[in-house]
Amino acid sequence: MPLSRLTKFFGWPVIAGLLLGTCIILWLNSNGAGSDNTTDRNFHIGTLTPSSNGWGGPVSYSEAVNSAAPAVVNIYTRTKLKRRRHPLLDDPLFRHFFNNSDLPQQERMQSALGSGVIISPEGYLLTNNHVIEGADEILVLLQDGREAQATLVGTDPESDLAVLKIPLTDLTSIKVGDPANAQIGDVVLAIGNPFGVGQTVTQGIISATGRYGLGINTYENYIQTDAAINPGNSGGALIDAHGNLLGINTAILDKTGFSVGIGFAIPADTAVKVMRDLVSYGQVVRGWLGIEAQQMTPELAQSFKLNAPTGVIITAIYNNSPAFKAGLQPGDIILRMNNVTVSDGRLSMMQVAQGRPGDKIEIEVLRNGEKVTVNGVLGVKPPTNNG
Fold this sequence. Notes:
The chain has helices at about 5-30, 60-70, 90-95, 130, 270-280, 300-305, 320-325, 345-355; strands at about 70-80, 105-120, 125, 135-140, 145-150, 150-155, 160-165, 185-190, 200-210, 220-225, 235-240, 245-250, 265, 285-290, 290-295, 310-315, 335, 340, 360-365, 370-375, 380. By secondary structure, the chain is of the alpha+beta class. Strand 6 and strand 7 form a beta hairpin. The relative contact order is 0.10.
């Protein structure tokens, strides 16, 4: 084949191939391929820059548990229950055949269990009132294996708390935290003796704070948690991630009696205040105003020509009570107490109860359509049987 014809046959494919190769080289160079400059390619899986927002947490909570667990005890109670006597045992003729002797009253023992928390090295510990209520014997078992018969110092059924004392030395007391600074989402641990299996730790978060109106106790201001709380956990510790006591585990919200992630604990500051009063005075000293009140409803608010159903209506006042001396009257609508808006009757009752006898209180009421401010001094609540 002549050379001119070969050139004509292969020329255009060769030229096209050279042009295509040149374009590929130019494109690769424009994207940094083959270059030593790696400034724009510093991305590697597993070496992302950590977040600077401060989030993080421990891999283990063992330090918190090791700090608090020695102060959490198991509580076993025994109650003597008298069996019903057969009617023949009280029949004179029947008793005659037993030489007129007095037959002993038949008894049986009932056992229960719960938990408690050592608050002071002197042996004072907190638990729930319902754990030891009616018990004839109270046995406390420590984490280190020691046990002791406990003495009942006092109870406060209105908050479901009780104080016990054990005659042991070298006790580890728990560090008390600050529930007022606890936030929803904080990690918490529940320590107790569920179902009597032995000391157990469960983990969760704070689901809510300031829970009240549940109808569990007279005075309610619970920490809600999803840490598992089961029968036997009552009276145990709810601690933060550092081992500080935040609350005394008290109740669960479930008809089956088993944990479904809604548990309640009495804040530690409230529980410690109750303990100090019971140790010092034998009873809890709470502020008392001396009124009976009704929660405002939308219908009542409309009848009083109020824009919103806030406040509580005074329905009765005890004679010679602090409210009586301050000049409060039935029909007054309490709007504010100590510059705090009154939105719920039970919450306001808690606010008064947290005060001490002798504390001054400023109350703003709506009377006959006009706002009136009265000043009073909290007193001591009289015994229930005195009205």
